[in-house]
Each structure stands twice: as C-alpha cells, then as structure tokens.
From TrEMBL:
Gene3D superfamilies hit by this protein: 3.90.1150.180, Type I PLP-dependent aspartate aminotransferase-like (Major domain) (3.40.640.10)
Gene Ontology terms: biological process: conversion of seryl-tRNAsec to selenocys-tRNAsec; selenocysteine incorporation
Lineage of source species: Bacteria, Bacillati, Bacillota, Bacilli, Bacillales
UniProt-annotated location(s): Cytoplasm
Modified-residue entries (N6-(pyridoxal phosphate)lysine), positions: K297
UniProt GO molecular function: L-seryl-tRNA(Sec) selenium transferase activity
This protein's name: L-seryl-tRNA(Sec) selenium transferase
Family: Belongs to the SelA family.
Cofactor(s) the protein needs: pyridoxal 5'-phosphate
Enzyme class: transferase
Source species of the chain: Filobacillus milosensis
Role according to the record: Converts seryl-tRNA(Sec) to selenocysteinyl-tRNA(Sec) required for selenoprotein biosynthesis.
Length: 468
C-alpha cells in the first residue's frame, strides 16, 4: 500500500505531462482548471489505494491512470448538466423533466430578447422608465376576465406573497381537505406558516361545510382561502363548499377570498372531453378576489406564478417589497408573452402550444405515427425489436389526476438483456431517452414524443442496437 502511494508523482510534475497539456488546449482550460482536475483525480486515487481497491506497481502506471481519469473528469465536469431529453413516458407535464415544453415561436421570442437589449422596464412611447408588470397584464386580463394581474417566479411564490401581504399576523381559514402537499414535499400549510399567516383549519379531511367557516370567523380573520385540489382526486363520502358560497361569505364579513388554483386552465380542455377543471375565467366570475396558478402547467408556458383578481389587491401586491424579491426575468416574460398571444388567437394557434397539442392529440393520430415509425425502422435494427401497443397517458405535473388519456406507443424488445440494463443504456444516450416500465416491459409512449424527435430517436436506437 505504501509503495503504491509513493509511485504517485507530485501535482506540479503531473501538470507537465504532454497528454494533459493537450487536453488543456483541447478544452480551452486555464491552468487553475486543469490543476483542479488533476488534484481531484489524485485525491481519489489515494483513497482507492488506502482502501486497497487498486494497486499500482510503477510510476508510469500511476501517471497513465491519472491522465485517463483526468480526461474523464474534465469531460464530465464541463458537460452540460441541464440537457434535452426525449420524454417517452407519456406524462405530458413531467415535473422531473421540466414540465411544459415551450412553443417554438415563444422560444424564438426568448432568443431575440436575450440576444438584444429589451424594453423590460422601459416605455419606448414615453421614453422613460416603465414597469415589467405591464408586459403581459392586458393579455392576462383578457384571458382570465380579471380586473388586474401580475406575475412572480412560480405559484408557490404567488401563495407566499398573497398571504404575506394580506394575512400576515392574521387568520386565514382553510378546509382540512384542501391542505395539499405539492412537489418536493412542499406543503400549503408550511408555506402559510412561513408567511406569518395564522392557519385556521376547518372541517374534516373528507367533509367541510359552509357553517364550519362561519363558526371560526373572528376579529383577527382576514382571509378565506380555497385550495383547488388539482393534484389529487377524492371520491366517496365527500363534501366541500363551492367558491361562490365562500366568496359571498367573505363579502359579508369584509374578508378577502383567495383561491390557489394550482394548474390554472385557460384553454378549455373540456371541449375535447378532457377533465372537469374550471377555467380561470370561471373562477374569477364566481366572485373570488384573487386567484393564482402556475405558468408551466396547463397554461403551457414557462415557470411563473400568475396572480389575477381585483385591481385594488393587485396594486397592493405590485408595490409590496416581495414583488422585487419574486420578480420574473426577461426570458421568462418573453416566453410567457408569446404563449399568451397564442392562447388569445384562433384555436389552431393555441394548438401550437406543445402542452395543449400533446394533451388533446387523439389515440388514432398517435397510432398512425407509430405504424409509420415501424415502417421506417423495419429493416434498420438487428437486435432491437418493437411492437405497437395500446397505452394510457397522464397529464402529470399535479394536474387532472383523474384523467386518463387513451394513447399508443411501442414496446421495446431485446433478447437476453435485462430491463434495468436497457433503461441505463437509454438514459446514457447522447440525448437521453426516458421511457417507462409497465408490465415488466419498456414502453415508448408517443404522446410525448414530437415529430421532430422521431428522427433523433431512430439515431439513438441505431447506437443502442450497435452496442448490443
């Protein structure tokens, strides 16, 4: 063990190796970056020797090991951690895979805004400072029917800001059946506590009545909060209070009625027979004072939190100190602006939004694409085999949990190779392919594979086929 440690050259000597100097030039590295890589690899090598997991017999062997592992370290370290993948799971709003895909025209708008200076906070008509709040407010007002609207960086931020501004040190009444947990173990009750709001729970898990709200209203109550349970569906012996009743009760006691909608449907999916989610406009019409929802769910845009409602409350929020803390950057505004423009135009324009397109596409259209894919690849592969299969997709992202979307896709079949190994190889592709396992089979659901991605998928599968 001691002998193996002694054969490791000092760092300054390793840095003079011709091969490492070539790597430095190839990757355009600074002296410090190369040194950091060599140090990391050398430290790791010492640990392996001490654990007796590796034995080196000569100085040359140690140098060769360090050079090889430094190349690996540099390649991994300077590779993008955020990279595109092919989502073959069939879950349209896959939280782990980035939720909503951005429309092509919205991406182009982001590029233009990012490439140049922009009117983020400049009024070109008056030639003076403007407000970023005005960029999309008119579009949001038209789509939601609200008096005013603003945007923050996500919907959890919306909830936190509204509670901080209007219920800090005060009581907000919420039904126990609506105290949901959203992604990453974040709970509505925890956000309320962090905002300084005093949580007043009413009712039971499965049943809450209007009288439950009435009984707890007191001088310290400032808000009735409704949380739309968009990320789960409860059936059976249940009862909840309609937002119209809560809005009326709030007005009677001069309280704010706020609903956290979560997913926030603006494009009417019910016209396609999909779900029973209320439109944001319908929620506003019910009389609530404020609503909030996500931009990267059913809206089909970037990650933002939208707050819409009565002008007097939105104006207060715009002036609140948290408005700066939680504000949205220019690229997100660019993507949101074009997404809203598409939603406001003819229905065929709305279908250019990937989320809307992927949720509403029919099983028959997907089947036609799969059969065409099979024809194209019939003679290409030797080891990889496919078969068409009926599937069921999910909307995902904590949205429309009760909705099942009839879909169509492929079953991947490879003899004498385990599912785990195949999934590992698919994830290791140049553009990773994220499939799902169902009934002990690897499934490619074409609902979330775009036309453009089919060619990429074929190239990736050729590489997989050659490696087997």
């Amino acid at each position: 063990m001691t002998h193996s440690l002694r054969v490791i050259p000092p760092i300054h000597e390793l840095l003079q190796q011709d091969k490492l100097l070539e790597i430095k030039d190839d990757y355009h590295l600074s002296d410090a970056s190369l040194k950091r890589g060599v140090q990391k690899v050398t430290e790791s090598l010492r640990t392996l020797i001490l654990k007796e997991e590796i034995q080196l017999n000569s100085r040359e062997e140690a140098i060769q090991h360090i050079i090889e592992q430094t190349i690996v370290w540099i390649h991994e370290y300077y590779s993008f951690k955020l990279k595109p993948v092919i989502n073959a799971t069939g879950t349209v709003l896959h939280t782990n895979l980035g939720r909503a895909r951005i429309a092509e025209s919205a991406l182009m708008h982001m590029v233009e805004v990012g490439r140049h200076y922009s009117t983020l906070e400049f009024d070109e008509t008056k030639g003076e400072r403007g407000s970023r709040h005005s960029i999309v407010e008119e579009y949001l007002k038209e789509l939601t029917g609200a008096e005013a609207a603003m945007v923050v960086n996500n919907n959890a931020a919306s909830v936190y800001m509204i509670l901080s501004a209007f219920a800090k040190g005060k009581e907000a009444i919420v039904s126990r059946g609506e105290l949901v947990e959203i992604g990453g173990s974040f709970r509505v009750s925890s956000i309320m506590e962090e905002s300084g709001t005093i949580l007043k729970e009413v009712g039971t898990t499965n049943k809450t009545h209007l009288n439950d709200y009435k009984q707890v209203i007191n001088d310290n109550t400032n808000m009735i909060m409704k949380v739309h349970t968009s990320n789960f569906h409860m059936i059976g012996f249940t009862e909840s209070v309609e937002r119209e009743e809560l809005s009326h009760l709030a007005k009677q006691h001069n309280l704010i009625c706020y609903e956290d909608l979560g997913s926030g449907m603006v494009y009417d999916l019910t016209q396609h027979g999909i779900g029973q989610e209320p439109l944001v406009k319908q929620v506003i019409e019910s009389g609530v004072d404020l609503v909030s929802f996500s931009g990267d769910k059913l809206l089909g845009g970037p990650q933002v939190g939208v707050i819409a409602g009565k002008k007097q409350y939105i104006n207060q929020l715009k002036k609140h100190q948290l408005a700066r803390v939680l504000r949205v950057d220019k690229l997100s505004y660019a993507a949101l602006e074009e997404t809203l423009r598409l939603l406001l135009r003819a229905e065929y324009k709305s279908l250019e939004i990937p989320t809307v397109r992927d949720v509403t596409i029919s099983k028959e259209e997907l089947k036609d694409r799969v059969l065409n894919f099979l024809k194209r690849t019939n003679e290409i592969f030797n080891n990889v085999k496919f078969a068409g299969v009926d599937l069921e997709s999910k909307v995902g992202g904590g949205t429309l949990p009760e909705v099942v979307l009839p879909s169509y896709g492929l079953v991947l079949k490879v003899e004498k190779v385990t599912i785990n190994h195949l999934m590992y190889k698919l994830r290791g592709m140049e553009m990773p392919v994220i499939a799902r396992v169902e009934n002990n089979q690897i499934i490619f659901d074409f609902r979330t594979i775009s036309h453009e991605e089919e060619d990429i998928l074929i190239k990736q599968l050729v590489v997989l086929d050659d490696s087997l």
